[in-house]
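<instruction>
Derive structure tokens from the sequence

<record> Sequence and structure tokens follow
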Amino acid sequence: ILGGFPAEKCDLNAEVLESTDEGKFVREKVVFQSEDNVSIPAYFLVPKGVSKPAPAVLAMHGHGGGKMDVADVPETPEDKQRIEGYNTAYAKAAAEHGYVALAPDQCCFGERMEEDDKEQKKGSSCRQVSFYYQLLGKTVIGQRVWDAMRCIDYLETRPEVDANRIACVGLSGGGTATLFSAALEERIKVALVSGYLNVFRDCILAMDHCMCNYVPGILKYGEMFDVAGLIAPRPLLVESGTEDPIFPIQATEFAYEKVKRVYELLGVPERLDKDIFE
């Protein structure tokens, strides 16, 4: 229902475009191919002074400036204010705590925005691309999941990375990508879904959301917590704010209890946890 994935993987054709010493870690700007004629620009952060290969974090940004948000590479004062206000610099935080981190531009954001959307200074290309993909029977979420899979392919090529210890984390739209990617990609050993896990009925259907959230036909098969259940028995941490206006906390608590039941049935309740914060 996400629209399917390419039958074969193309070569990554990865390049390192630049390298910057950030004190506790080195930040590389890299680019690699997701599929033919589709490239993913990303920041690759390598902490100093840790034993390698090290565990890695795939850090998926939400709506905003793209990879700059999670790597904390603001281009304007407004970028800096957004990053600090939403506490989005989790790729940088991971690197400062000894994890290798990869922060890609998700499709529709950053360097992957459509040119006319950039010229009109729109926040993303989600609307335009969502409609394009629907004509092809595809979805933006499906593209983002495929891109996450290719990000892991890239991580596996780097000698700094322990390929058996890869986590995926994301806030809001990054939480969406993390949830669906972890459900479908078992190389993700740990998932942290922040500001997303909920019930479609109470969030996506109850108020305006970005078009990129919509997966045609998904409610014929299950709710959001059913997708989350596919992550089990791998560890999952759910974060949510009590005053999140678009992912109501009561529905998050309801969804969490549904997912908890899956972990209990599989005999691993300790692998699921939540952090509900003010």
Notes: The chain has a mean pLDDT of 96. The first strand starts at residue 15 and ends at 21. The two ends are 35 Å apart (CA to CA). The first helix runs from residue 67 to 71.
